[in-house]
Design goal:
By secondary structure, the chain is an alpha+beta fold. 45% of the residues lie in helices and 30% in strands. Helix 1 (33-47) packs antiparallel against helix 2 (51-66).
C-alpha cells in the first residue's frame, strides 16, 4: 500500500488522488450467521428440557458473536461511487491511511 500526492495504491488497485472526493473510516458489521445458528440450536435444546446443553450453547453463541474481530475499512468516494479500498483489523493502520490520503488531497489542492 502506497499513498503519494498523485495516487493511492492498495493491493492491485490504483486510485488517482485527483479523483478522490472524500475518504473515511468505516467499521465492517459483525457476521452473526454462525453464532445465531448456535443460539437457535441452544434455545431449541433448552426448550426441549435439555437445559444442560441449551444454556451453554446459547452462552457460547452470544460470546462468539460479541468477541468476533471486526475489520476496519478505508472508504473512498469518487465520481463513480464509493469504494472499500482497504480492509484491515487495525483501526490505527486504517486511520493512518485515511490521514495520509486526506493530506494528499489537501496538498493537490
Amino acid at each position: 500500500m502506497t499513498v503519494t500526492q498523485t495516487r493511492f495504491v492498495s493491493g492491485r488497485e490504483t486510485y488517482a488522488i485527483a479523483g478522490i472526493t472524500s475518504v473515511s473510516v468505516a467499521r465492517e458489521p459483525t457476521l452473526w450467521t454462525g453464532p445465531a445458528l448456535l443460539i437457535i440450536a441452544g434455545l431449541a435444546a433448552w426448550a426441549s428440557s435439555s437445559w444442560m446443553i441449551g444454556v451453554p450453547a446459547v452462552m457460547v453463541g452470544v460470546l462468539w458473536g460479541l468477541l468476533q474481530p471486526r475489520d476496519w475499512v478505508v472508504s473512498i468516494r469518487t465520481a463513480s461511487g464509493e469504494v472499500k479500498a482497504l480492509t484491515d483489523r487495525s483501526e490505527k493502520r486504517v486511520q493512518a491511511v485515511v490521514d495520509a490520503i486526506s493530506r494528499a488531497i489537501v496538498a493537490r489542492g
